[in-house]
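User: quick one, fold this
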Amino acid sequence: MKIQTQKTIAVFELAARVYLAYMLVEYGVSKLTGGMFNNASPQVLNTPLKDVDLFHLTWYWFYKNKLLTYFIGIIQIAAAALLLFSRTVIIGVLLALPVLFSILLVDIYCVGSAALIIRVAFYNLLLLGFIVYRWQVSKTIFTQLVLVNKTRVGNKPILLAATAGAVIVLAIMELIIVWGLALLAN
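Assistant:
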């Protein structure tokens, strides 16, 4: 019975990886081809900025910020490719998780669509599930990343401190962008 359960979980995990890879490719390609964020109607463009709703303001900002949009699209496609292969799943998760978490924050604070929020939250949960399902591999990768060159400050790895600092800086930048967009809309 235990072997059957393990096989069932493995099949579900593979199906979830293929599904998420498909969705990431679909979103990534739409960003690279201009299919996403290209919804600025003349009516919205002729509206005073203070009267534009946050959804249209956010979408227009991403539309005008081509470099960021292309970067996100490329990361999504690369992560999708990595999710398809068993040996690179965790690397794909490490690429996709920050992007999808950022998208979740934008959807929560700027778009406000419950369907989008639930969908992107589900994608994030799948990614976290891959880490849990492959915990031994995940633990090994994270340990290797933290203990690179075994360089230490006191009893803590330098890389861990630098990574934590970078995460804090990125989180602050994310909040500034999201709050800035919210302030522009008000």
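User: anything notable?
Assistant: The radius of gyration is 19 Å.
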